[in-house]
Each structure stands twice: as structure tokens, then as C-alpha cells.
Amino acid sequence: MEIFDNLALGFSVAVSFQNIFYCFIGVLLGTLIGVLPGLGPVPTIAMLLPITFGLPPVSALIMLSGIYYGAQYGGSTTAILINLPGESSSVVTAIDGYQMARKGRAGAALATAALGSFFAGSVATFLLAVFAPPLADLALKFGPPEYFALMVLGLVASVALAAGSVVKALAMVVLGILLGLSGQDVYTGTPRFTFDMLELADGIAFVALAMGVFGIGEIVRNLEDEHTRTVMVQKVKGLLLSRDDIRRIIGPILRGTFIGSFLGILPGGGAILSSFSAYSIEKKISRHPEQFGKGAIEGVAGPESANNAGAQTSFIPMLTLGIPSNPVMALMIGALIIQGIVPGPNVVNEQPTLFWGIIASMWIGNFMLVVLNLPLIGIWVRLLTVPYHILFPLIVGFCCIGVYSVNNNAIDVFTMALFGVVGYVLVKLDCEPAPLLLGFIIGPMLEEYLRRAMLISRGDPTVFFTRPISATMLGLAVLALVVVLLPSVRKKREEAFQE
Amino acid sequence: MTRFVKSPKEVASGLLLVFLAAFFAWQAMGLPMGRAVRMGPGYFPMILAGLLGLFGLIVLLSGLTLHPVEDEDETQRIGFSRWPWVPLGLVTLALVVFGLGIRPLGLGPSMGLAVFLSTLASRRFRLTTALLSSFIMVAFSWAVFIKGLGLPLPMLGPWLGGY
Q1: Residues of chain B neighbouring A430 (CB-CB closer than 8 A)
Q2: Which residues of A411-444 are buried (b: 16+ CB within 10 A; e: fewer)?
Q3: Which of A364, A496, B78, B146 is 20 to 30 Å from A137 by CA-CA measure?
Q4: C-alpha–C-alpha distance, residues A50 and A1, integer Å
């Protein structure tokens, strides 16, 4: 079996001392920021991007992925213990997890979350290993029109599945693409949107934009209403699950893993949507739906498995097609580009050590997380007492040095300052900035494939509709938009996101 | 007049988007367009600017109504007066000061200044913790970025006797 050879190769890469070390740093940092409310994986990864320049690509990606799935674990800890979800994906876990903690069953809830996450993470990683290579092979057969259509579909789907106004999200995507096109035109070398500034010849720095919108903008939003966090934490005891508990969580974990794995692949899906869907499904099929919201162990097992599975499978489109399904994956693609690797289907075949090394490290990382989380819960909880007004100036400092060190160019720091304000204003106007980042990353590729497609079709735009694969994908994109914009669906969708 | 505004947020977003679209279109105008078969650098940006303007118009119109509304929806107000202007200004200032100071002053002073300025953004500012945070961050960035990662950055810039 080829897959076992590949996995063996992956493990041989991942178990080197250096990579185990970076995997550990990644999951540790991930848990840390997952526990701390107000600091999510996106700004953290953006801040750490510059530090990864000096590392080999495998180590860099291993560490950054560790941060992402580590944050899913960390977020659930605080959700259960103090009803304060550290990550948006653990909002659902807080509903029943906190009720369990109040009944003195915090230990059982934490153990369920950890076991569910571990199981789901392992299965989803296996799915990634099985499905990614054939998908990449398929994508290699794509010509420019198919690629263009695929990217349009990816962008539209991420808009359709995300919360909030569809038209605004589409506008954010387009704005992101426009910003992404800044700098010298690849074909002619003509500078675009640079205002005759030599410093902008390479375009707007991705790190500066991401850190501004998601790091600085977020800080200002947190400073809006500063309130004292009083932390009351019960003693955690009884991490062992009873036989009855185990019987009750097997089903939810399996279903959660399945739902999460599926939704994680879809653009715009990922961890958040997975956990919400898993919760509502568990509630619907349960024989005791009235227990939900009052400490049902199924309400912890399902969503926790789903969000971890979703986090893991969202790597599939990123690694095989070079298309990010959420902002974290957009940052990963940014990391690949910075490392000089062209994201796309070639990564699997041309960089086997990178691809399989990351996959193998995910198992190691998930295992580390179980070991890290259960015994060290006391330490994580104590971290919650670090007040935000101490924390955020340090984050500002990190952002400064981080963004400056990318090119040793002060213009990047000013760009970050500008986009900090932009990010804050956009959020205030209910414009989600996440699609903007996706557009920014995809923009240059989109233009490149459009130009190539038009070149081979001799300027005939019908090429997108006469080639079956591209026509299907564009059709799906239109269908997704029509469905989301239908009045009846629109209402349901708003209700679904209300929860 | 304002009664025809159903949602100030939508109207403001729409106006902002239309303005940005016009700005990008104006910028793209100065670029060679080319033709569909061999697109120039201005071709795709022009299409996108058109799309952005269209979306902006839709958002703008969706915030307006022909039937005058009496009670305004609280969630749709922008609430400029409640924006954290001071923190927003201070954090932005901190970044700008860092950017301006990094060359002439060096990493130490500009980092210290940036961290100190941002501590001012919190209502729970205390001088001792602020100074301590700034000092820790300066020491940390020296240890990690200059000693550890070997970035070619002087602690003290030319204005302060460095190189």
C-alpha cells in the first residue's frame, strides 16, 4: 500500500527532534491562546509568520498547524470551566459543558471533550491522508478555465456558508481581490495601486494586512468594553468516565466526527459551522432532548468531536488545491508562499516530505494535546487571571516587530496601522473581514488563471461554460448564491445563525 | 430625510463601498486595458471595481426605504459617539511611532514607546505596570529578535549614538 509508505515517510520527518519540538511549541501556544479569550488563532499565526521565515518549511507548517488545532482544545477548557468560550468554535460546548461543571462533573466534561477531540482529530487526519493525494491528482488535470471556476466556486461557497449579509461578504471578497492585485503586474511589470511609492512595488504585504485587520482591529474591539473578569473555578476532579458515560458518548463522537470531517472540507465551513451542526443534530435525535442545555454529556461530545474534525479536514483544500477554506488556511497559504512553495496540487507530489510530514505531525500533536490538557488544566485556568490590559500592549509590541522584520520596511508597519483602523470600521459596519482575507490571497491567482484561460480561448469568454468541469463548478456557484438569496432560505439561515 | 434611512449601517457601508469602487476604477483608468484575449494590467481591476460598485449600490439601497419609519432599529445604528476613539487613536499612534522610530531611534526606544503608548489605551492604566510592560517587551525583543533570531536591527539607532 502506497499510503503506508507515505505515512512512514511522514513519520520519519515528523519525529525528528526539531519537528517534535516545533509541534510541541505549536500545540502549547495553540492551547494557550485557545484558553485566553480575546486572542484567537488568526492573529497568533499572523504574529508568528515572520518568525517562521528562518525555519525549514516543514517545521514552520507543523508549528502553525499545531496552533490551529491546539486552539480548538484550549477553547473548550474555558468554555466548560467558566462558561467563557476561548474560541468561537467552542461556543456550543459551553452550553452543556458549563452545566456539567456546575453539577460537579467538570472532570467528566473535560475528559469527554479531550477524548472526542482526539478521536475526531485522528480520524480526520486519516481522511486527509487518504483523500488528499487523489484530489490533487484530479486537480492536476485542470486547465486554467477549470482553475478559475474552482476558485470562484470556493469564494462563493465561503460567502454563502458564512454568517451575515451575502452581498456585503461578496463585496469584501472583491475588495480583497483588488487589494491583492496591488504591486507590479506579473505580465507587464506595470505598477498597480502603488501611488508611485517604490516601497509598494511588491504590493501590500500579506502579513501587514492580516495583522492589521485581525490583530490590531481585534484589540480595539476588545477595548470597547473593558470589564473585570472575575474567575471562579471549581476544583476539577474525577476525570474518569463512568461506563454509562462512555456508552452515551460513543454515538455523538462518531456522528460529530463525520459531520465535522464533511463540513471542514467546504469553504467557509471549518470548525465553527461543524460544532453548531453537530449540536443541533444531537439534540434532534436524542431520546432526551430536554436534557440538552442542562448538562447533557452528548452536547459536549458531539460538537467537540466535530470542531476538531473540521479543523483537521479544512487542510484538504488548502494542501491539495491551494484554496483556503477559512482565514487560518489563508495564513497557511501565505506561509507557504513566503517559504517559496507554490500552493496547489503540486505540493503533494513535489513536496512529499512537507505534505506527509505535516499529516504525521497532526497525530503526534493530537496525542500531545491529550497529554497536555488533562493533567495541566489547573495551569491553564490560572492563565485566565492574566488581565487583558496587561496582555494587549505586549501583543501590539509583537505585531510591530513581527511585521517590520518581514521586509525590514517601515511601510509595512504603517500599512498594518491603516488596516487596523479599516478592520475595526468594517466590523462596526457589520462587514465580516474574513472574506476580504480570502480574496486577498486568491486574487493574484484568480487573475492569472483568467488571463491564461482567455489567452487559450482567443478571448472568447464562453470557454468557461463549454468545458464541462468548469461549467459545472460555475453552475454550482450560481446555484449556491441563488439558494442563499431566496427569501425563504434567507430567513431560515438568519435563524440558524442566531443561536 | 433621515426617515427614509432604514439602516444607517447599510447606508454607510454602501457609500463606503461605492467610494472605494470609484477610487479603484479611477486608479485602474491610468493602466493599459488591453483586450480580452491579452488582458492588460487594468482589465481585471476595472471589472472588479465595477462589481464592487454594483454590490455597494445594492447594500446602499437595501438600507433605504420608501415608507418612512418611525422607530429606528437600535442594532442598525452606527453609534459613532460610542466608538472607542481614544484607544483606536492611541493604538494606531503606537504603530505609527514604531514605524517612524525604528530606523533613527533603533529597536529599543521605538518598542518601548509603542508598548507604552498602547498601555495608555486601557482605562485601567497604571504607570508602574505600563513601565514594567514596556521594559519587559524591550528586553524580550532584544533577547528573541536580536540575539536569538539575529535580525539586523540595532538596539539604538543613529540618532542615539548607535549605528
Answers
A1: 9, 13
A2: bbbbbbbbbbbbbbbbbbbbbbbbbbbbbbbbbb
A3: A364
A4: 39
Reported as a single tens digit per residue, the pLDDT across A221-236 is: 888 876 655 555 556 6
pLDDT, tens digit, 9 for 90 and up, residues A5-64: 888 888 888 888 889 999 999 999 888 888 776 677 888 888 788 778 778 889 999 999
Q: How many CB atoms are located within 10 Å of the residue A215 CB? A: 27
Minimal C-alpha gap between A470 and chain B (Å): 19
CB–CB of A422/A213 below 8 Å? yes
Q: Dump pLDDT digits (tens) for A128-183.
A: 888 888 888 888 888 888 888 888 888 887 777 666 788 898 999 999 999 999 98
Other C-beta atoms lying within 10 Å of the C-beta of residue B28: 24
Between the CA of residue A242 and those of A45, A105, A115, A492, what are the distances in Å? 38, 11, 14, 39
User: Which helix (H) or strand (E) is A345 found in, with range?
Assistant: none
- Identity of the residue in B44, B123, B125 whose CB atom sits nearest the CB atom of A447: B44
Distance from CA of B23 to the nearest CA of A (A): 10
Q: Which of A177, A431, A461 sits opposite B48 (nearest CB)?
A: A177
Q: What percent of chain B has pLDDT over 90?
A: 41
Of A93, A77, A91, A121, nearest to A298 by C-alpha is: A93
- On whether the CB atoms of residues A288 and A348 are closer than 8 A, the answer is no
Q: Is the pLDDT of residue A187 over 70?
A: yes
Q: How far is CA B40 from the centre of its chain?
A: 30
Pairing outcome for strands B38-39 and B34-35: antiparallel
Q: Which of residues 23-82 of A touch B (CB under 8 A)?
A: 51, 54
Environment class of A197 (CB within 10 Å of its CB; exposed 0-12, middle 13-18, buried 19+): exposed
What was the pLDDT predicted at A2? Answer: 76
Task: Give the span between the Cα atoms of A217 and A391, in whole angstroms.
Answer: 15
Cβ–Cβ below 8 Å for A171 and B141: no
Q: For A400, which of B114, B130, B134 is closest by C-beta distance?
A: B114
> Which amino acid is residue A32, in one-letter code?
L
| Contact between chains at B83 and A428 (C-beta distance less than 8 A) | yes
Cell of A305: 468531536
Look up residue A234 and give its DSSP letter: P
A:B CB pairs within 8 Å:
182
What residues of B are in contact with residue A459 (Cβ under 8 Å)? 35-38
